């Protein structure tokens, strides 16, 4: 019964890898599944030149991936074999493939790590913050797709029926996210308080199927600012959209980042999505 769902997960991973490569131009993207014994298994890849890393099993705590699982945070190294922040059990495989710089981020669904998303280059160049943000955003999109598949699996098991046609792909989720952000912006321009509340309720309903219980409460204005950021708006553009000053937007962003423990505006969007405040 579950085999079609597993295929859905595989398709979501492959789509995420392809999307990230196209968006960043980085030659190598990989995904490693976290096994029951806390080892990682590289199951999907694009751009590898050799079979050295294909289907590689990574011991707990080993290398970049092991550190990601241990810390539940993104990890990047510019020169893998000389990096002092990781262990080096897999150096031979890395050298055989010829990778130098690697960035990896966790993929977390319902607070459990499901796998690790990697990008890498075959030259000693530093992958900057922008790349880390792109990898993180792609991982968060993948988390949404995997979360939906998990919900549909539970529905199949409890109701004895499949709803395969209702599982949304990555493009459909992106459309929902864009619609959610634009709907929040529309609500912000409505003067009628009752109508504005109705629109905000609709926004909440768009994320309720896959949201987790929020331990952090964000105000409506903070969510409006995050919705603007999710659409790629600058602070000035968000201020114009919301009819407030740019400094006020900055103030809301600082408040959001403090509440969510985020260091950048993009991390704040990712954190808000993780708690179900944004789709």
TrEMBL record:
Lineage: Bacteria, Bacillati, Actinomycetota, Actinomycetes, Mycobacteriales
Coiled coil: none
Keywords: DNA-binding, Transcription, Transcription regulation
Domain HTH luxR-type, first and last residues per copy: 211-276
UniProt xrefs under InterPro entries: GAF (IPR003018), GAF-like_dom_sf (IPR029016), HTH-type_RamA-like (IPR049651), Sig_transdc_resp-reg_C-effctor (IPR016032), Tscrpt_reg_LuxR_C (IPR000792), WH-like_DNA-bd_sf (IPR036388)
Keyword Oxidoreductase: no
One Gene Ontology MF term: DNA binding
Record GO biological process: regulation of DNA-templated transcription
Entry keyword annotation includes Transcription: yes
Name under which the protein is recorded: LuxR family transcriptional regulator
Provenance organism: Corynebacterium phocae
């Amino acid at each position: 019964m579950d085999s079609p769902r597993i295929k859905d997960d595989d398709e979501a991973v492959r789509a995420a890898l392809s999307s990230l490569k196209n968006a960043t131009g980085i030659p190598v993207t990989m995904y490693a599944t976290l096994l029951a014994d806390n080892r990682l298994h590289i199951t999907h890849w694009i751009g590898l030149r050799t079979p050295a890393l294909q289907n590689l099993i990574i011991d707990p705590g080993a290398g970049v991936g092991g550190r990601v699982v241990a810390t539940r945070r993104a990890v990047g190294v510019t020169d893998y074999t000389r990096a002092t922040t990781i262990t080096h059990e897999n150096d031979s495989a890395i050298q055989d493939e010829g990778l130098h710089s690697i960035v990896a981020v966790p993929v977390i669904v319902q607070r459990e790590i499901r796998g690790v998303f990697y990008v890498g280059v075959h030259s000693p160049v530093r992958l900057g913050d922008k790349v880390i943000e792109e990898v993180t955003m792609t991982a968060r999109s993948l988390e949404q797709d995997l979360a939906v598949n998990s919900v549909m699996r539970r529905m199949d098991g409890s109701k004895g029926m499949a709803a395969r046609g209702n599982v949304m792909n990555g493009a459909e989720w992106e459309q929902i996210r864009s619609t959610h952000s634009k709907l929040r912006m529309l609500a912000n321009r409505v003067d009628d308080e009752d109508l504005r509340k109705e629109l905000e309720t609709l926004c909440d309903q768009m994320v309720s199927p896959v949201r987790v219980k929020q331990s952090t409460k964000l105000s409506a204005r903070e969510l409006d600012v995050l919705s603007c950021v999710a659409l790629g708006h600058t602070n000035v553009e968000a201020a114009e959209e919301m009819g407030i000053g740019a400094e006020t937007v900055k103030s809301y962003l600082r408040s959001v980042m403090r509440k969510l423990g985020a260091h950048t505006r993009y991390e704040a969007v990712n954190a808000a999505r993780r708690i179900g405040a944004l789709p």
